[in-house]
């Protein structure tokens, strides 16, 4: 199953190492089993920010759970001027992200806006006045066990400000009735419904302000036909 996966047979290696314990991700990072790491900013994120089609606030606070090496964390701090926190349960990932930031010749003002922290997203708390204007999820939702998806939804709701935006870059996006959704990864799968059913909880309301399949010619090869970007605005 993993042999014909777009990310190659290292997805099989991932599945044999990961358990429900987020610390098992650190083993992957230490063994350099990181097939999801594309080495660059995700083109659909760049496109949605730079098109100006959504009036994202600037100079606020952003969160990137499961940030990995942090390409997109650095990009959001740079493009929107947000104080941006990249969270990862793996200390090795955070070390790699800090190294990337240090080696990227960023100006000091930008460096002061980028913060990488080792933390379990499910235990992460911020006071009321530190809630986020923007949360960006790319391959974090599909990294957690599906049994934790409703907890992901309640955490997003507890961390984002009313009026804040959530960008979900879904990869791999599979059809709702795909007979073999687990053939996708890393290591799980997603579709629009799987986010929607866990976000609208506890009376919170979300408006879908963008829902699109990026043009294949803008995507990295392994993403063609497998990405969907949805931007949600928390309205209440
Ligand atoms: C599939 S990788 C994606 C990394 C990054 N978003 C990227 O695309 O390059 C998932 C990341 O989530 C992190 N992770 C897994 N469970 C976590 C948790 N409970 N809290 C924070 N990070 C977690 C892993 O260490 C890993 O770096």
Automatic annotation (TrEMBL):
It comes from Lentinula edodes (Shiitake mushroom). CDD domains: AdoMet_MTases. GO terms for biological process: methylation. InterPro entries: SAM-dependent_MTases_sf, TPMT. This is S-adenosyl-L-methionine-dependent methyltransferase. GO terms for molecular function: S-adenosylmethionine-dependent methyltransferase activity. The keyword Phosphoprotein applies. The keyword Transferase applies. Keywords: Methyltransferase, Phosphoprotein, S-adenosyl-L-methionine, Transferase.
């Amino acid at each position: 199953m993993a042999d014909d996966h777009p990310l190659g047979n290292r997805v099989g290696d991932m599945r044999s190492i990961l358990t429900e314990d987020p610390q098992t991700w650190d083993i992957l990072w230490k063994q350099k089993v990181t097939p999801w790491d594309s080495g660059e900013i995700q083109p659909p994120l760049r496109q949605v920010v730079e098109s100006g089609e959504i009036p994202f606030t600037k100079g606020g606070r952003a969160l990137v759970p499961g940030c990995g090496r942090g390409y997109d964390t650095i990009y959001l701090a740079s493009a929107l001027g947000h104080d941006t926190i990249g969270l990862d349960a793996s200390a090795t990932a955070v070390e790699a992200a800090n190294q990337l930031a240090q080696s990227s010749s960023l100006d000091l003002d930008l460096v002061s806006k980028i913060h990488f922290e080792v933390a379990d997203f499910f235990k992460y708390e911020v006071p009321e006045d530190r809630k986020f204007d923007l949360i960006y999820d790319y391959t974090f939702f599909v990294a957690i066990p599906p049994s934790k998806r409703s907890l992901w939804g309640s955490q997003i709701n507890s961390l984002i400000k009313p009026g804040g935006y959530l960008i979900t870059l879904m990869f791999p996006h599979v059809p709702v009735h795909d007979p073999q959704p687990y053939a996708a990864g890393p290591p799980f799968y997603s579709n629009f419904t799987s986010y929607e059913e866990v976000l609208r909880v506890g009376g919170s309301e979300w408006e879908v302000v963008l829902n699109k399949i990026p043009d294949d010619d803008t995507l990295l090869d392994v993403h063609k036909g497998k990405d969907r970007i949805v931007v949600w605005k928390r309205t209440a």
